[in-house]
Amino acid sequence: MSDIRDQEPEPGKAAKSGAGPGPVPPVSAGGPPAGPPVGKVPPEAVKAIPVRHYGRWISAAVVLFLLALLVQAFRNADIAWEVVGEYLDAETVVEGALNTLWITLCSMLLGVVLGVVLAVMRLSANPVLSSVSYAYIWFFRGTPVLVQLFLWFNLALIFPVFDIGFYEADMNEVMTPFMAALLGLGLNEAAYMAEISRAGILSVDRGQTEAAHALGMSGAKTMRRIVLPQAMRVIVPPTGNEFINMLKTSSLAYAIQYQELFLAGRNISSRTLAVMEMLIVVSVWYLVLTTVFSIGQYYLERYFARGSDHRLPPTPLQRIRAQLTSFRVRSKVRGASGEVTV
Amino acid sequence: MSEPMVRAEQVHKSFGPVKVLRGIDLEVRRGEVFCLVGPSGSGKSTFLRCINHLEQISAGRLWVDGRLVGYRQKGRKLYEMKEREVAAQRRDIGMVFQRFNLFPHMTAVENVMEAPVQVKGVPRARARERAVELLERVGLGDKIRAYPAQLSGGQQQRVAIARALAMDPKLMLFDEPTSALDPELVGEVLDVMRQLAEEGMTMIVVTHEMGFAREVGDSLVFMDGGVVVEAGHPREVLTDPRHERTRAFLSKVL
Of A145, A342, A168, whose CA–CA distance to A242 is shortest? Predict the structure, then answer.
């Protein structure tokens, strides 16, 4: 630990001297007359006027202008904004949003767990397991998720009775819109998660498995304790992407009468004829949900990056703070070498 | 003396058409430091990996502590061992890799505790105590909570040695343990190995450190092209090699 601290100033120093306009001219270069004599270079941090980025200011002005035009256009459009405001927190809409959140969480959970299992099966030495996994991925990735939703929802047409030996029920009662949506979305997701997990598992160095085996760990333990935790670093970012995708894909479940956000909006607009207004309400909600998830994903990635690097990049909050202070303070060196994770 | 720790008879190993080992015969006695030297591609690392069944041998027989590695023999028939039996056999054989292979998502102490807790079922508190003790022994008492990425190569390799020792092995395999290190870090790893040798650990060391081999080694085998070219006491082989091939090799590395 101590020697890490000792090394700390090194990159800082390098950045400082690199940022300045050639602070120390090489001694052997013949010494241009303007160059300071050797030994007279001040040892403190370089204070230089940073490069001015006029292009950035101009482009910002252009973007703001275009944005103003867009806002103006929407203000003049035939949209009843008070209706948007009114329905933004309507009970049906909030309920729909919660249902969207719920089905997303449930089907992602199903997708991730099953996906990891499928990936491990696919990479297994057992040919039966790997071909089962291959066939699963082939089918669920090869058919549209909307078709799969209808397949599950209409399962009663071919299996009128749900019978698993100890439990028997009418299929129409078992296959509620929620159940059909969960199976349709979750099982489809598992196929994609399987491929993502497989890539993650393959990204882990073979030496890790060998080291674990050499210590006497079994294959399953090696996978669970050594390989998967390291694979997570590769698996998490695309999974976050899948999560956000699922939030939006879950809107397809409106077709099988699952009471999610989009269906809630449609129900209201078919009653009030405020079509565009309800679409805006629904979009706002989707944006809120995806934004919250993006933030969660960011911190999850940081967690799984532990031990992979000396220091993590600053969080957005830390970065904003550094940016704001950098306008006032010339030297930005602080923000770059902020923290060390221990 | 009693049963040798490792006995190899006509060990062959091929990867497809490539014959890497072509009949290795040797014995490693208990408590000795056995050095394997030779040019790269001579099969010394492969042979080491066969000893704990990371590689399966193609022909011949290999015993560790009197038991066949990876197989059971009933009458004249050989049966492949199940995964669990192989794992059980490996428990008693520690291995240190050229590239350390520490678990990067665990701290130093977690790396050392992992196998005792997961494989032997040692309670966490006790495993941790032991791990700290081992890390202190390799001179890393102050790096317990550091992640591998925060350690130098020499420190990582010492953690790797502590990790192997945590399973109380009766045999330690070292696969070029200092080859990936900066020259100034080699010494700290060799010191730990020297100390281990003095404590009577049976060690098989694949190495290019001829100084270490001469000073600490009890036996030395020079391999080339998948066969043992010359074997004997390190001092004899290194100072007065009998084979032309050995002489040529040594003249380049010494």
Answer: A145
**Rounded Cα–Cα distance for residues A35 and A27 (Å):** 10
Interface of B with A in 78-107 (CB under 8 A): 83-84, 87-88, 90-91, 93-95, 97, 99, 101-107
CB contact under 8 A, B149 and A207: no
Where is B227: in which H helix or E strand?
A: strand B227-232
Angle at A293 between CA A288 and CA A295, to 5 degrees: 100
Give domain limits for chain B.
Answer: 101-168
Interface of B with A in 33-52 (CB under 8 A): 52
**Which residue in the set B91, B99, B107 is minimally distant from A207, CB to CB?**
B99
Q: B143, B108 in Cβ contact below 8 A?
A: yes
Question: B103 and A211: CB-CB below 8 Å?
Answer: yes
Chain B nearest C-alpha distance from A227 (Å) = 9
Tokens of A25: 């001219």
Prediction pTM value: 0.78
CA dihedral A44, A45, A49, A50 (to 10 degrees): 170
> Among B140, B160, B171, which residue's Cα sits nearest to residue B29?
B171
Residues A80-94 pLDDT 10s = 888 888 999 889 999
A238 contacts A119 by C-beta, under 8 angstroms: no
Provide the token pair at A319: 């970065």
pLDDT digits (tens, 9 = 90+) for A222-258: 999 999 999 988 998 899 899 999 999 999 999 999 9
Check whether A332 has a pLDDT greater than 50: no
Q: Measured between CB atoms, does A312 come within 8 Å of chain B?
A: no
Q: Which two tokens stand for residue A295?
A: 């933030």
Tell me the C-alpha distance between A127 and B138, whole Å. 44
A339 touches chain B (CB under 8 A): no
Run of H or E including B240: none
Query: What gap in Å lies between CA A282 and CA A247, rounded to an integer?
Result: 12
The domains located in chain A, with CATH, are 77-304 (1.10.3720.10)
* From A2, A3, A207, residue closest to B97, measured CB to CB: A207
Torsion sign across C-alpha atoms B47, B51, B55, B58: positive
Of A1, A213, A219, the CB nearest to B143: A1
pLDDT per residue as tens digits for the range A132-183: 999 999 999 999 999 999 999 999 898 888 888 888 888 888 899 999 999 9
> How does DSSP classify residue B38?
-
The two structure tokens encoding residue A77:
């459009």
Q: How many residues does chain B have?
A: 254
Nearest to A103 by CA among A180, A36, A42: A180
Q: Read off the pLDDT of residues A276-314 as tens digits, 9 standing for 90 and up.
A: 999 999 999 999 999 998 888 888 888 877 666 556 667
Spatial separation of the C-alpha atoms in residues B42 and B222, rounded to whole Å: 9
The owner of tokens 């050594």 is A226
Which residue type, as a one-letter code, is found at position B211?
G
| Chain B hits for A312, Cβ within 8 Å | none
Q: Touching check for B164 and chain A: CB below 8 Å?
A: yes
